[in-house]
UniProtKB/TrEMBL annotation:
<dbReference type="InterPro" id="IPR018973">
    <property type="entry name" value="MZB"/>
</dbReference>
<dbReference type="InterPro" id="IPR014001">
    <property type="entry name" value="Helicase_ATP-bd"/>
</dbReference>
<dbReference type="InterPro" id="IPR011545">
    <property type="entry name" value="DEAD/DEAH_box_helicase_dom"/>
</dbReference>
<feature type="domain" description="Helicase ATP-binding">
    <location>
        <begin position="72"/>
        <end position="250"/>
    </location>
</feature>
<keyword id="KW-0067">ATP-binding</keyword>
<keyword id="KW-0347">Helicase</keyword>
<keyword id="KW-0547">Nucleotide-binding</keyword>
<dbReference type="GO" id="GO:0006289">
    <property type="term" value="P:nucleotide-excision repair"/>
</dbReference>
<dbReference type="InterPro" id="IPR027417">
    <property type="entry name" value="P-loop_NTPase"/>
</dbReference>
<dbReference type="InterPro" id="IPR001650">
    <property type="entry name" value="Helicase_C-like"/>
</dbReference>
<keyword id="KW-0378">Hydrolase</keyword>
<dbReference type="GO" id="GO:0005524">
    <property type="term" value="F:ATP binding"/>
</dbReference>
<dbReference type="Pfam" id="PF09369">
    <property type="entry name" value="MZB"/>
</dbReference>
<protein>
    <submittedName>
        <fullName>DEAD/DEAH box helicase domain protein</fullName>
    </submittedName>
</protein>
<dbReference type="Pfam" id="PF00270">
    <property type="entry name" value="DEAD"/>
</dbReference>
<dbReference type="GO" id="GO:0036297">
    <property type="term" value="P:interstrand cross-link repair"/>
</dbReference>
<dbReference type="GO" id="GO:0043138">
    <property type="term" value="F:3'-5' DNA helicase activity"/>
</dbReference>
């Protein structure tokens, strides 16, 4: 590795001096230099109205990029399009200019366009940018969502603007409860969905169902759909799945002109959170402005806490669920340079204007390379040099990329995923559809929608009368109001502070059972709580505040049982491994927990067991597979091999499928049967993607277990922080032996997964 940038050398030296550990520091640097995107025509040559030309000139834009002009022409031609390009490359202009020209040419009942953003904060941020183009009252735009004051909503309803800026949650609820939203949806010629890459997993399944409802509502006059996104692996497939219509894909550059240094930093044997906090303090002391990205609220809180307590650097936390005023205050302080940085969940991955940033720190490799590019694009914009630091620690995928750093920057962008047949999601949307329309014909429902209708009839939420299905209004409306969130598919557990006697947060099932079991330590809003009890039936967890200097955390000890399953698709892998994609019913039982100090290893700690386990049962989707047993091994040896393979395959699903840590779980049996399931109730689409891309995941799993230099298992190969039995019954060597034989010779005999399974399940 040759570092040609003095600042990186200085930061590396500062980091090693601060931590005083030889194995901490920069291990690889990739220099990226990007030229100006391909130019298109001058703005005077594309027949724009004078107010738009003046607005572009005020922003210093004299010429469009080629991809912007291609989008401009396609939208004017009435085509449904998906525009993909990197952060800060001008996607907004690509869709906004043709829409404003159409509005200028033909004045029709307002609004003429709905711009849909995934968060309320982003909608308000983008409104400021949109207003730059509206010019002297020629056009109008306004945000209409749950944070819009009632009086302003009434004014917008009475006199709608040309463009309504909102979010999918508002459309989802409004189609049922708001005549104003129904009118806006009915009148809009354009339906624009920005940040399209966010709509994956369960959230994507919900939003797809919302657009299915819109398409039914506007059966004879569908809107023109426009999607805008960072670069994704399957833009056409994803756009057509989400919108339900054919789309044209227009691709722009990965990033704007400039230089970016992508730096891989080894945490050695230390916690990635400690090294990330230390790196943030180094950047702050050098006067650099930065974001630290993590993938969970708990880790954002932890990094901010370590940075302050260990290094004296005050890093604020930016995450979903913060009060709007607090979130805006943090963004304003970062934009103005009043704070050096923030620890953020993916809330700041999106296009919120936070001014110029020198650097981005990723506390761990993001779930997918597309998300890496999106986050990396926040640094070094506006023609200035940017620095992107990614911390690699004791983790199988981190170790994989530490051995092969070039592969990290050469990897493909995986496809986005969702499960359009998630029955937990469709249950709510079919209820919504019935509440909107009053009744629907049974013969208008096909496949999974019909199965869901039958389930609703069994639950007495709907009635079948002749050829029609009717909602049982009182009960159906009550259920809709209880489960109307589209940010998940499981019921929400209310977190209640017994001392303060107030609600401090929410956690979705089944994750709530793992995070809030009795005596669990739970971080929230930079505070530490201890769970007193969780009542799954009443969906409430009672917690008590712990001192801020509490030095320990907890991990659940649990089992997962496969209660039932039904195969949806099956195939045999190229190496002879039988695979099936299936609906499964799982029962999670938390039987105890382990208490561990922050500096202890993954297998250390003190175990405690409950007299009665905390149990939750739910439906999801899973990949089922069957490896051949080794007849020369005993029961325990086979169990050790297959449990380790299960862990390695779940790790491999991260680069292959874009799965985040904790989004997939697994069960293995000594018989060689393995179940890898979606953590989200109803399914997220990850298991299906792994079913389709299994061969690549199997290759990476083999490298994970065969290239580690540990004795027979460690956090860098097969240990998992989510293992239900504290990483027992695992053998890296035996897993490598099984996978090595399969990759070299293939499987000779194949048996349908779970057909002959035996033994106690291991998770």
């Amino acid at each position: 590795m040759i570092i040609r940038d003095q600042l990186i050398l200085d930061i590396d030296n500062d980091l090693q001096e601060l931590i005083k550990a030889r194995d901490i520091g920069v291990i690889y640097v990739y220099r990226e230099e990007t030229g100006e995107p391909e130019p298109g025509p001058c703005i005077e040559d594309i027949d724009l109205p004078d107010p738009l030309i003046e607005a572009l000139e005020r922003r210093g834009i004299r010429r469009l990029y080629r991809f912007q002009y291609d989008a401009y022409k396609s939208i004017l031609n009435g085509e449904n399009v998906v525009i993909t390009a990197g952060t800060g490359t001008g996607k907004t202009e690509a869709f906004l200019l043709p829409i404003l020209r159409k509005i200028y040419e033909k004045r029709t009942p307002k609004p003429q366009a709905m711009l849909v953003y995934p968060t309320k904060a982003l909608a308000r941020d983008q409104l400021q940018r949109i207003n730059d183009y509206l010019g002297y009252g020629v056009f109008s735009a306004a945000v209409y969502d749950g944070d819009t004051p009632r009086k302003i909503r009434q004014k917008i309803s009475a006199n709608p603007p040309d463009i309504v800026v909102t979010n999918p949650d508002m459309i989802h609820v409004g189609l049922v409860l708001s005549p104003t939203i129904r009118r806006f949806v009915k009148d809009s010629r354009f339906m624009v969905v920005d940040e399209l890459h966010v709509y994956e997993g369960v959230f994507g399944s919900h939003v797809k169902a919302v657009f299915e409802r819109i398409n039914r509502y506007r059966r004879n006059n569908p809107p023109q759909y426009i999607g805008s996104s960072a670069t994704i692996g399957n833009p056409r497939e994803h756009g057509e799945t989400l919108f339900g219509v054919p789309v044209k894909v227009i691709e722009g550059p990965l990033r704007r002109r400039g230089i970016a240094y992508h730096v891989l930093v080894s945490a050695g044997r230390l916690s990635r959170w400690t090294v990330t906090a230390a790196l943030a303090s180094v950047l702050a002391r050098r006067g650099l402005r930065f974001i630290v990205f993590v993938d969970s609220q708990q880790m954002a809180e932890l990094i901010a806490r370590i940075a302050w307590r260990s290094y004296g650097v005050d890093i604020m936390v930016h995450r979903a669920g913060l009060p709007a005023d607090e979130r805006k205050m943090i963004e304003s302080k970062l934009r103005a340079g009043e704070i050096s940085g923030v620890a953020a969940t993916p809330t700041l991955e999106l296009g919120i204007d936070i001014g110029f940033l020198d650097a981005v720190i990723m506390a761990a490799p993001p779930p997918s390379f597309a998300k890496y590019l999106q986050r990396a694009g926040r640094a070094g914009r506006r023609g200035r040099k940017g620095y992107v630091f990614t911390v690699l620690a004791d983790d199988p995928i981190d170790a994989y990329y530490e051995r092969n750093p070039k592969r990290y920057f050469e990897q493909e962008i995986p496809p986005l995923y969702m499960d359009p047949e998630n029955e937990e999601v469709l249950r709510i949307h079919l209820l919504a559809l019935l509440l909107e329309q009053g009744r629907i014909r049974r013969d208008g429902l096909k496949g999974v929608w019909l199965r869901v209708a039958d389930r609703l009839r069994y639950e007495r939420l709907v009635s079948w009368v002749g050829p029609y299905i009717y909602p049982n209004y009182r009960l159906a409306r009550k259920v809709f109001m209880e489960y109307m969130s589209i940010r998940g598919s499981g019921p929400q557990v209310v977190i209640y502070d017994v001392d303060e006697k107030n609600i401090v947060g929410y956690r979705e099932l089944p994750q709530a059972v793992l995070d809030l079991h009795p005596d669990a330590v739970y971080l929230l809003n930079r505070r530490i709580y201890k769970s007193i009890e969780i009542d799954v039936d009443k969906k409430i967890a009672r917690v008590k505040r712990l001192p801020d200097d509490t030095p320990y955390y907890t991990r659940p000890l649990y089992t997962v049982d496969l209660v039932d399953y039904s195969i949806l698709a099956s195939r045999t892998s190229s190496r002879g491994i039988p695979l099936a994609y299936a609906w499964v019913k799982l029962s999670i039982s938390v039987e105890g927990y382990i208490v561990r100090n922050y500096w202890e290893t993954e297998k250390a700690g003190i175990k405690y067991w409950f007299d009665r386990p905390v149990t939750y049962t739910y439906n999801t989707k899973a990949l089922l597979l069957k490896y051949p047993e080794n007849p020369e091994w005993d029961y325990m040896s086979n169990a050790e091999a297959f449990h380790a393979i299960e862990h390695a395959l779940i790790s491999a699903a991260r680069p292959v499928c874009g799965a985040a840590l904790g989004e997939m779980g697994g069960i293995s049996y000594p018989s060689g049967d393995i179940v890898i399931y979606d953590g989200a109730p109803g399914g997220s689409g990850l298991a299906k993607l792994l079913f389709e891309r299994f061969e690549k995941a199997e290759e990476i799993a083999y490298e994970i277990v065969s290239k580690c230099d540990c004795e027979d298992g460690c956090p860098r190969c097969i240990y998992s922080p989510y293992c239900g039995n504290n990483n027992q019954v695992l053998s890296r060597r035996k897993a490598a032996y099984v996978l090595g034989n399969i990759l070299k010779k293939g499987a000779i005999k194949t048996v349908e997964p779970l057909k002959n399974k035996y033994g106690k399940p291991i998770v």
